[in-house]
Design a protein that fits this description.
The radius of gyration is 14 Å and the shape is globular. It has a single domain (about 20-135), classed as Beta Barrel (Thrombin, subunit H), CATH 2.40.10. About 5% of the residues lie in helices and about 40% in strands. A six-stranded antiparallel barrel has the order 3-4-5-8-7-6. It contains one helix and eight strands, in the order E-E-H-E-E-E-E-E-E. By secondary structure, the chain is mostly beta strands. It comes from Microterricola viridarii. This is DUF6916 domain-containing protein.
């Protein structure tokens, strides 16, 4: 489910480990990179994220930022061929967190337009993966 993205202000992030609260449990999150997020470009499409696999993004849930790494962009059946711009699944790893948050997240990166998406844990908890699904008609 994709949610329309609005204007994004600068994210207050530091270049150090930040205590994060997820599910009411204080945890030590990985370092949050310091960068100026790219502005929103409307609804997110696959090509915004393509080519940025392996790079660090910031996923902010309820004003709490988490450093996440984009590990894959998967097709969503029944995609209209592979590489459908409007049907894809973003898979992120969240290193260092025993629990992955769930909910509406602002996904930011210095070169990728900011996107507001519902993101939730996926797969085995030991893999610490977060997925954000975009599945809409063109």
């Amino acid at each position: 489910m994709a949610v329309g993205a609005g204007a994004v202000g600068a994210v207050a992030v530091g270049a150090f480990a930040t205590p994060a609260v997820a599910g009411g449990i204080a945890q030590l999150a990985p370092a949050i990179p310091a960068f100026t997020p790219a502005p929103s470009a409307g609804l997110p499409v696959r090509s915004h994220f393509a080519g940025h696999e392996g790079e660090t993004f910031v996923a902010t849930f309820a004003e709490t930022p988490f450093a996440v790494t984009l590990t894959a962009i998967d097709d969503v059946p029944p995609a209209i061929g592979t590489g459908d711009e409007n049907r894809f699944n973003l898979i992120f790893t969240v290193p260092g967190l025993p629990e992955v948050p769930s909910g509406i997240a602002e996904i930011t990166h210095p070169e990728v337009p900011a996107a507001t998406l519902f993101a939730s844990p996926a797969g085995d908890s030991t893999k610490r993966q977060l997925q954000a699904l975009v599945n809409r008609d063109a």
